[in-house]
Predict the structure.
Amino acid sequence: MKGLILKKDNLVPLLRKIRKGGKLVAPVQNRHGDTLFEVIDDLDRQQLDLEHQAQSSLKPFFFPQNDPLATYNCAEDYSFEPVVSAEPTVYFGLRSCDLTAVLYMDVIFSQNGADTLYFARRKEAILISLGCNQPFAHCFCNNTGSGPFLEYGFDLQFTDLGDSFYVEADRARGEELLERWSYFFTPADEDDRKKQYQAVLEARSNFRRTVHVDPAVKRLAADPDLQPVWRELSDRCQDCGGCAYICPTCTCFTIVDQPLAETHGIRLRQWDSCTFSGFTRMAGGHNPVNHAEQAIRRRFLHKLKIDVEKHGRPSCVGCGRCVDICFGGVDMIRFIAMVNDLKLPAEEK
Amino acid sequence: MTMYLPQMAKIVKIIRENPQIKTFVLEFRDKEYNKSFSYEPGQFMMVSVPHCGEAPISFSSSSTRPGTIELSVRLAGKLTGAMHRLQPGAMVGLRGPYGIPFNMKELADQNLLFVAGGIGLAPLRGVINYCLDKGGYGRITLLYGSRSPDDIAFKTDIDLWRKNGVDCRLSVDTATEGWDGQVGVVTTLLSGLEIERPRSSLVCGPPIMIRFLLPELSRMGFRDREIITTMERHMKCGIGVCGHCHLDNRLVCVDGPVFDLAQLKELAVEELGELT
């Protein structure tokens, strides 16, 4: 479909209309100066922030850190009642990396049957992404094929043209939204399209980092046994799980029972991380993974080797959040550099 | 959350196999579900016990004996501890069956060598009973290692198997008074043993046993495809999503738990050491 133009002055009025029809989630700067995706209750009070990268991704909205699967009763009998909650929600202002991550989660949560809870929320979601004219400090989505702008996958994609947004739809739900609120938009002309194209081109040259993802992927496919790398990074990993929690594509979880009383409780799905020593520990204490040397092997191989084999592309989306979260420097950019710097056995001779 | 919702099952009987192992005979509360439920040798169920979450437990029974299912559980942690305190009549939650089973069609007409250590006999018990009930399999030999004579589990089954022509040979790591059988690790039972082709060996036990057993079986001339084992891992979902049971680029819950040695050699399996 042809592009449309939304004057920036019309953005907040449009979001107000959208919010009246359902839930709205957008990046908001809080009083501490942190930018996080939040449910918008009051557009006058909450400061919409489209200047900074949101520190969190959309992951928690579809796959919450603590997600009740069921309530259980074990008084006289033992039984489970499923819990499902989802409401129509428009997500505005997510970046191309975050959108790509949601599309990846769609694949993960449809393996061996569609995950009821995840897709209940996903089916109610409209995703409006904002391309990145100016990538942020640790961004490398151009090297992971997940930005700075996308060609498909979004319901709507916004491009900042200065005093207006260029708006394009890829999915029916996006088009429906445009039709419903059509009086906010005007058709884009040839000049607007040129400006949009120019913004996309310029964005590609605005990256401050070049991360050689493809060579690392090839290297790992050929030889995933990089003991010196695993050892050094495992040694520096402090077992905090921050990288997995902040990562928009880390979806490993645990399932636990939370008793509320002797007679009943909640079964929760909770975020977990393969870097935790307890992740593979079995009843009785035996652990088939040598944590000291292999703690982070799983994490990086999963993203750059196993997902390439399984799904045809790495599951790192280049958002750079793991760089900021880890004080031990056990992040994707460091890892990729270490892999590419390793001398091949043939070169050592 | 239907995919994670357990079916409730009643414990109809508990058999104490040894000081650490109990076999729970279970019946689904929903009679129709119980009637139509079916599974294959080597598969497992996710078991829920009140306030304890879930754990994977393999079938120790065979679907050739419908009506009830049996899960043999070793007392190891919180969930299994709570399960051991349950009495007949109590309810547990079950979901499954999950996992790739033993390929019983491919094993037809073959002479089968079962090697088990400790609780490792539980999944193989289901396979042996399946073979005996179905018929159409060759000579069956069982080598079973226990820590001590008191630790020998499934004694009733072993007696029955002997009566049905299964060559059962037992060993204990440490003998006590009155034990006149083999003493030593289970691999000592292999010496002098001859299994004619076509043949396969099905092995299950602690990683240390598997680690020493695999090269021994290779030395006896078993081909990699003829050595089949089931792997054990911490699991949460059972359906290939939660990530816990990773084994190199595979997940034990959906790509296993049954693997043959040819498959294992392509993977980095830390607890089994270098497989050559």
